[in-house]
């Protein structure tokens, strides 16, 4: 899953290329480049952040249930989630200031404050009603795009051209200080828009609340029917929603530029179907984990290495930017000016493999959380002495968990070390 988000962030760094009307991907390249663009638009763009939003909601509920099972009051557990959400916003601001304007941790922090306050302590019925309302709003936002597609008037919505993401993400900025200002401006807009009015994010996070209460990802073999239906319908709808934009971008379907721009009909269709793809991908990985378990053999070296990264997902996610931005951006080494969509995808794969190897090495040297997880845990829980005093006041029902045994603190929190 971290590989998918690493791949989905590649287009932001191709600042020397001429971009298409969507502003996301170059409008040029070899056959391999066009193939890479097609796959990313159909299967990754606007489809990966809902996947991580689901897992973030899942991890929030894991943390809440773990705290209350150990004797904390629901109010105390929510306070912990609130502190964690506030610190995630700080993490996001620092991430954007130094490296990546498209940071998602800040938006997840804002959403966790809102949804944690409204839904974490509520019953399943209230959570599902909230998800149903979000789904209804999502459908309503897709109505203009459906009408435009049905009428063949694809230029009715949007405006052209959309400013290239390489500009608003400051990848083309040679002045490091000016780049900081641009990144923070973009980050603030993305964080507030997604955190407060991000209907797709709300929908999948609430479904993550519901799924975590049933341990769908920890015990996938008990939910095979649900996972199969979700994978089949989710991936099919998600890819169909992204297919028109992909066809238009590579020139296989002639459409007005407005249709591909921000707010355009094809962009709106892709955004409305993004949550389906995200949920479908989660279900596919759940089915894969269930299949591994049915083999009743110890996981292989590769599976253990990937699981080690999953336990350190926040560190892995932040490491992507640490290995991307200083190397690719114009204010750094400027390698992004010399790469194409296909070679950038290979670069992203290499970056992901580096994080897998680093996490695997840490796991074999004794485990423990990643540096970002350790810092977030320290800030959210306080010092070990304060944490011990808090546990004593709440009359725990079990021993304090050793470091690194909790569910991951990052966006890919989906169970303790599970594939």
Task: Walk me through the structure.
- The chain has one domain.
- 67% of the residues lie in helices and 0% in strands.
- It has 17 helices and no strands.
- It has helices at residues 2-8, 31-43, 48-69, 74-98, 105-119, 124-151, 165-168, 176-197, 199-213, 224-249, 257-260, 265-294, 301-310, 313-328, 341-364, 371-381, 384-393.
- Helix 3 crosses helix 12 and helix 6 packs across helix 12.
- The radius of gyration is 21 Å and the shape is globular.
- The model is unreliable at 388-419 (pLDDT under 50).
- Keywords: Membrane, Transmembrane, Transmembrane helix.
- The chain crosses the membrane at residues 48-66, 86-119, 126-146, 187-212, 233-255, 275-293, 314-333, 339-359.
- Pfam families: DUF418.
- This is DUF418 domain-containing protein.
Key structural traits:
mainly alpha; single chain; disordered C terminus; Bact_Transport_Assoc; 419 residues; membrane
- Mean pLDDT rating: 84
Helix content class: 55-70%
Over all CA atoms, what is the radius of gyration?
Answer: 21 Å
Termini gap = 10 Å
Instruction: Please trace the helix and strand order, writing H or E for each element.
Output: HHHHHHHHHHHHHHHHH
Poorly predicted spans:
388-419
How many structural domains are formed by the residues? 1
Shape: globular
């Amino acid at each position: 899953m971290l590989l998918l988000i690493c791949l989905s962030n590649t287009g932001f760094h191709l600042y020397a290329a001429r971009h298409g009307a969507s502003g996301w991907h170059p409008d040029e390249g070899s056959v391999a480049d066009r193939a890479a663009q097609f796959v990313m638009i159909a299967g990754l763009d606007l489809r990966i952040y809902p996947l991580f939003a689901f897992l973030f909601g899942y991890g929030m509920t894991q943390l809440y249930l773990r705290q209350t099972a150990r004797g904390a009051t629901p109010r105390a557990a929510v306070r912990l989630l609130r502190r964690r959400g506030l610190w995630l916003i700080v993490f996001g601001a620092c991430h954007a200031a130094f490296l990546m304007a498209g940071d998602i941790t800040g938006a997840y922090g804002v959403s966790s404050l809102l949804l944690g306050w409204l839904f974490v302590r509520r019953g399943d019925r209230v959570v599902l009603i909230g998800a149903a309302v979000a789904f209804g709003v999502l459908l309503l936002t897709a109505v203009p795009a459906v009408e435009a597609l049905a009428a063949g008037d694809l230029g009715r919505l949007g405006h052209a051209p959309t400013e290239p993401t390489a500009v608003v993400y400051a990848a083309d900025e040679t002045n490091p200080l000016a780049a900081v200002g641009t990144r923070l401006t973009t980050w603030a807009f993305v964080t507030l828009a997604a955190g407060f009015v991000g209907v797709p994010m709300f929908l999948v996070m609430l479904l993550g609340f519901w799924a975590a209460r049933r341990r769908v990802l920890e015990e996938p073999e008990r939910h095979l029917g649900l996972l199969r239906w979700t994978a089949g319908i989710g991936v099919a709808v998600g890819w169909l929603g992204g297919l028109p934009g992909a066809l238009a971008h590579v020139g296989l379907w002639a459409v007005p530029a407005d249709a591909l721009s921000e707010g355009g009909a094809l962009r709106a269709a892709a955004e409305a179907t993004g949550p389906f793809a995200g949920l479908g991908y989660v279900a596919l990985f759940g089915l894969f984990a269930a299949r591994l378990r049915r083999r009743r053999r110890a996981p292989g070296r590769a599976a253990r290495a990937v699981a080690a990264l999953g336990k350190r997902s926040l560190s892995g996610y932040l490491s992507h930017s640490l290995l991307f931005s200083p190397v690719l951006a114009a204010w750094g080494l400027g390698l992004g000016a010399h790469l194409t969509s296909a070679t950038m995808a290979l670069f992203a794969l290499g970056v992901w493999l580096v994080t897998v190897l680093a996490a695997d090495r840490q796991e074999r040297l004794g485990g423990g959380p990643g540096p970002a997880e350790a810092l977030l845990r320290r800030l959210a829980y306080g010092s070990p002495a304060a944490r011990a005093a808090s546990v004593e006041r709440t009359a725990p029902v079990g021993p304090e968990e050793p470091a690194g045994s909790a569910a991951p603190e990052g966006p890919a929190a989906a169970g303790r070390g599970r594939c």
